[in-house]
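FIELD: query
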Amino acid sequence: STPTDLAHSANRASGHATVTDLVEGDNILWIVTRDAAGNPSAMVRVVLIVDNLPPVLSDMTYTDSTGVPLVLDPSTSSPKTNFTPVTIRGMVDDSLTVVEINGLVAQRDGHDFEVDVPLEIGQNDLQVVATSPNQHVTEDVLEVLRGTIPTVEAIDPPQGSKSYAELQTTI
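FIELD: result
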């Protein structure tokens, strides 16, 4: 964030006054005062949070436990993986909103959040609940499909035997 100059009036009798528009979510103000000789103080960062609406979640991404982004399953249009847990990342419009997915509280870094969610085999409906400081709530359901990794169950001819070019081998 960069400092913003705000017009203000200073009067020894009435103190300082500043008028600025605030938006929903985080509002970062940088405050610098000046003494009678015009010398500036050190800049101070103040965050004012306006919380009159439910939280807004955005930029949701899914990666598997190896860090690979999940692909959409063509039959369901849901993200699909063969691994667990899945890491869900996203953004929310203020820095104090608590984000939970299936009851797991997400780690926060400013507006960003991240949480690792274990998956069961099959369709997983992940319940997302974002609760703002004034208890405004946004809820959503994220669908993730967990498949299985194919495994070799039998080899014909048995492992260790020789296979010849003219004979058929089934794996």
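FIELD: remark
The first strand starts at residue 8 and ends at 11.
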